[in-house]
Amino acid sequence: MNAKRYLKLSQKIAYGTGDVAGNSSYTLLSSFILIYLTNTVGLNSGIIGILMMVSKIFDGFTDVIFGVLIDRTKSKLGKARPWMLYSQIGVSACLFLLFTIPAGSQTMQYVYFFIFYTAFNAIFYTANNISYGSLVALITKNVNERVQLGSFRLIFALLTNIVVSSVVMDLVQKFGGGSSGWRAVALIFAVLSMAINTFSCFMVKEVPMEENEATEQDTNRKQAKIGFVQAGKYLLTNKYLVIILLYYLCTYIMGGITQGAGVYYMTYILGDASLLGTFTMAQMFPMALTAVATPFLVKWFKGMWKVNTAGYILNAVFGIVFIFAALNKNIPLMLGLVFIRGLCSGPMNGTLNALIAETSGNIYRLKKVRMEGMMYSCSSFGVKLGGGIGSAVCGWLLEAGGFDGMASVQTQGALNMIQSMYVFIPVALSIVMAVLASMLNVEKANQKWDEEHRD
Fold this sequence. Notes:
Layout: H1 9-41, H2 45-72, H3 81-98, H4 106-139, H5 143-174, H6 178-203, H7 213-224, H8 228-236, H9 239-269, H10 275-301, H11 304-327, H12 331-367, H13 372-400, H14 412-439, H15 442-452
Helix pairs in contact: 1-5, 1-6, 1-9, 2-4, 2-13, 3-4, 3-6, 4-13, 5-6, 5-10, 5-12, 9-13, 9-14, 10-11, 10-12, 11-12, 11-14, 12-13, 12-15, 13-14
């Protein structure tokens, strides 16, 4: 089964461009919404953090709901593609509206932000992200192609993050600065995301299950009887899925904190906001390079979990060195260490979708139930809960440090807090992720099961 090829190179590339659409929206929101709200609208970072965290409560419920809906969907476009296609309309609309907060009562501005932030994350981006992720398991059954899709996806995601982080602040100023500048930038990315998402969706096609008709009918009958509780039991009793969820939480808590704090760190600690693009490029570009080599590294190490474990151990070691470079504001050394850490963490990001697909296969081997939509809803839940916690913590810590977006000079307490968020917390989380990577040997477990049950 693994030897059969399902995808052309053009389709793999087209699938990867879907992350250009997703990250154009998500990076703009996660990296810049906080500084837009504090420094342009004049809202309180602590209150914003609370609203972000409350929003994630709704987000958690909708992840599971959309996962089940995708699993039960039957259409000419397949299970996942219709959700991916139509949800982007809401993603683009909410993105624009979030950077178009009207003047007036601050209370109403908080309410406005909460409504559209929740709609973006809990409804539209959830449906889009889960359906897009589910396609890895639905457009090919070839493990190597799944790894390749993960690599293409990561490359486009990283390049998009680099571009967005590099150009946004300059574009805001080019379009007049202030509210009008943010509104124009949000409109550009909203339209761009819509066009690219549509292209990616129509360039791939879902393939039928490879089991014989009788087996597939038995599987569908069994799956139709599974409710939320039973599905949750199947998922949360699988140790590999739990590890993936913990990894997502850690990496996106770290991402939420560093993305939120990054523009503050460059502005108030290093004194140049434009450095955000430089540091993002130093981090993302090597991850893209590593993603290209990930399929070869997996073969060389003879297992995804081996290369991922080695990568994150090195990432943690160089992270400790980064602390000393940051304390001395040695920018060239900091950039070099960021580049090396990007090389080290690249394989894990490039294999995550393949690991999820392998975990889905593990559940099928043990329970004889297909749950691709639910699987990717859980990963999406980890992404957004982790990112939400990270963004919320960023707001709370800024408030705790005494940050004032309207002040021309920040207190030493605020500056210390910004440095802690960008420098110290990520290193601690990278150590945790090294431990998690060492436990995620799901492909080895699947191979062992196949050998034991071979006819």
